[in-house]
Amino acid sequence: MTTLAGALDVTAVRADFPILTESVNGEPLVYLDSAATSQKPRVVLDAERAFLEHENAAVHRGAHTLAAEATESFEDARAAVARFVGAGPESIVWTSGATSALNLVAYAIGNASIAGGPLALTRGDEIVVTEAEHHANLIPWQQLAARTGATLRHIPVHDDGTLDLVTAADLIGERTRIVAFPHVSNVLGIVNPVADLVALARSAGALTVLDACQSAPHLPLDLPALGVDLAAFSGHKMLGPYGIGALYGRGEVLDALPPVLTGGSMVTTVTLDAAEFLPAPQKFEAGTQPVSQAIGLAAAVRYLDHLGMQNVHERERVLEKRLRDGVRSIPGIRLLGDTDVADRVALCAFDVDGVHAHDVGQVLDARGIAVRVGHHCAQPLHRRFDMTATVRASASVFTTEAEIDTFLDALSGVRAFFGVRR
């Protein structure tokens, strides 16, 4: 698909998303919750439906024509998603989402720690994460540390939300075995310094694991060029279906990881006493795979490729500035990660003084505006800023300046609505 040149035609893009014509509470839908789950363009809906209507069969299992066609489409989808992140198809493992992918890695390393090998952890080894993690890139490492006796350490964030790289350099050392971190914070919207963290990890001989959920939909992404060993992303956050995601891994790392789920389709030879496994990625794909969802995700990345990810990023930089400048200009609102020095995506989280986040969300919802409220699966980060909940607004390729302005207008009246004067 040919990449579009220049600025995005947002009107044309919006026409591709059927749900954007809906009304909510009698108001036109203003969808500002893409960081939680994105809306799907018609080509994604059509691709998944077309597969189910015309090619549906078990992949990698049948010798009949329909099964061969289904397998070809399934593997073409893997190749399309791999190209989107700058990788080869052998580097992409299908999962049900990023949470599944990150748990796969943690449990595989746990298995390696039992069996021994280059990725094994022992008591006294260290796993380093950040204070800005989504729970999906924190709890698996907590559990792995508990199972292996490793120590979990974290890189703090500054008051402006940026990572404390001085402390990171002190933390990452000879006992560090894993460094896991988000490419983009799902609360702060800040693009983290991947190159710096990868360099620190490499100097210690540590494995790097990237949470790319909030970067894959918004930034040009070349995972091999970033130098990370492993990365996870979810389809439903990047215009694709639910129930599909991917684990990217460098070949030698995937080869060293033992399988976690076992069963059919990931073996070469099975006896009553033992089994031999296929090479990666198939050794991680036991049982029935999310085939139609993979087809839908491939349609999503082709759609994003057509728009051009640099175009997407430049467009969203405009929206991000309008969104953040507007929020910070409203009295009584505290914006988390309020810094101009870092690269960002169009996402911000904030606290409205005197009004609980859930109440803010209800007022906005009455105007047809969908935002996220709560801790956004990042309780430690909220605790860092002495908060239990915030409101998060997040844009996507279909968001307009007018929608941002509608949101800001509604937000500016929230404190008065609740009679908050201070």
UniProtKB/TrEMBL annotation:
Its EC number is 2.8.1.7. It is an enzyme of class 2 (transferase). It catalyses: (sulfur carrier)-H + L-cysteine = (sulfur carrier)-SH + L-alanine. CDD domains: SufS_like. Pfam families: Aminotran_5. InterPro entries: Aminotrans_V_dom, Aminotrans_V_PyrdxlP_BS, Cys_dSase_SufS, PyrdxlP-dep_Trfase, PyrdxlP-dep_Trfase_major, PyrdxlP-dep_Trfase_small. It comes from Microbacterium horticulturae. This is Cysteine desulfurase. Its cofactor is pyridoxal 5'-phosphate. The keyword Transferase applies. Residues 30-407 form the Aminotransferase class V domain. The keyword rRNA processing does not apply. Keywords: Pyridoxal phosphate, Transferase. Gene3D superfamilies: Aspartate Aminotransferase, domain 1, Type I PLP-dependent aspartate aminotransferase-like (Major domain). It comes from the Bacteria. GO terms for molecular function: cysteine desulfurase activity. Catalyzes the removal of elemental sulfur and selenium atoms from L-cysteine, L-cystine, L-selenocysteine, and L-selenocystine to produce L-alanine. Belongs to the class-V pyridoxal-phosphate-dependent aminotransferase family. Csd subfamily.
